[in-house]
Amino acid sequence: MLIAFHSDCDIIYRIVEDIADIIREIRELEDQIEVESQKNMTTNLETSIGEYKKIRDENIALKGGKNKNFF
Q1: Contact, 68 vs 60, CB < 8 A?
Q2: Which parts form a coiled-coil structure per UniProt (predicted)?
Q3: pTM of the full structure
């Protein structure tokens, strides 16, 4: 009976270690997702600013060239 109890404790210990490893991997993946999300935000912002400038320039051209150095 003591041997069975020891074996069960060993199994539980391994399961707890596996869970800790999985939690660590999840945290690392969440950090990677955050980094990629930040990269996408920067890219999206740069794209939006570029589109804004293009639309602004088109509007200025339609109005006859006033206020060209706004942004």
Answers
A1: yes
A2: 12-46
A3: 0.58
Reference 54, options 30, 33, 71; nearest CA is: 71
Reported residue count of the chain is: 71
Which position has the token pair 């020891």?
A: 6
The tokens describing 23, both together, are 């939690």
CA 69 to each of CA 48, 58, 59: distance values in angstroms, whole numbers, following the listed order: 18, 13, 13
What is the full DSSP assignment across the chain? -HHHHHHHHHHHHHHHHHHHHHHHHHHHHHHHHHHHHHHHHHHHHHHHHHHHHHHHHHHHHHHTS-STT--
For the segment 7-56, what is each residue's pLDDT rounded down to a tens digit?
999 999 999 999 999 999 999 999 999 999 888 888 899 999 999 999 99
